[in-house]
Amino acid sequence: NCTKAICVEDNVVQVIPIICNPPPKPTCSNGLSPVPVIDEDGCCWHWECDCYCTGWGDPHYMTFDGLYYSYQGNCTYVLVEEINKKVDNFGVYIDNYHCDARDVVSCPRTLIVRHETQEVRIATVQPNTLQVEVTVNKQPVALPYKKFGVSIYESGINRVVEIPELKMNVTYNGLSFSIRMPYSLFGNNTQGQCGTCNNNTADDCRLPNGDIAENCETMADHWQVVDPSKPQCSPGLVPTKTPSTTPAQPCKESSICELIWGSVFKPCHEFVQPEKYYAACVFDSCVVPGLDLECSSLQIYAATCADQGVCIDWRDHTKGVCSYKCPSNKEYRACGPVKELTCRTSQQNETSTKQVEGCFCPNGTMRYDSSVDVCVKTCGMMPYAFGFHFGERFTVDCQDCICLEGGQGIVCGPHKCPQHDKITCEGEGFYKVNEVNPEDACCPVVTCKCNTSFCTAKAPKCALGFEVHSFIPSGQCCPVYQCVPKGVCVHQNAEFMPNSSVFVDKCQTCFCTNEVNVNTQLNIISCKHVPCNTNCQPGYELQPVKGECCGRCVQTKCIIHAGNNAELILSPGEFKNDPRNNCTIYSCVDVHNQLISSTSEITCPAFNEESCKPGTVSFLPNGCCKTCAPLDSRTPCSVRQREDFIVYQGCRSVDRVVMTECEGTCGTFSLYSAEANSMDHSCSCCRETKTTVKDVELKCPTGETISHKYIYVESCSCQDTEC
Question: Could you tell me which cysteines form disulfide bridges (predicted)?
Answer without folding.
Answer: 651-700, 662-716, 666-718
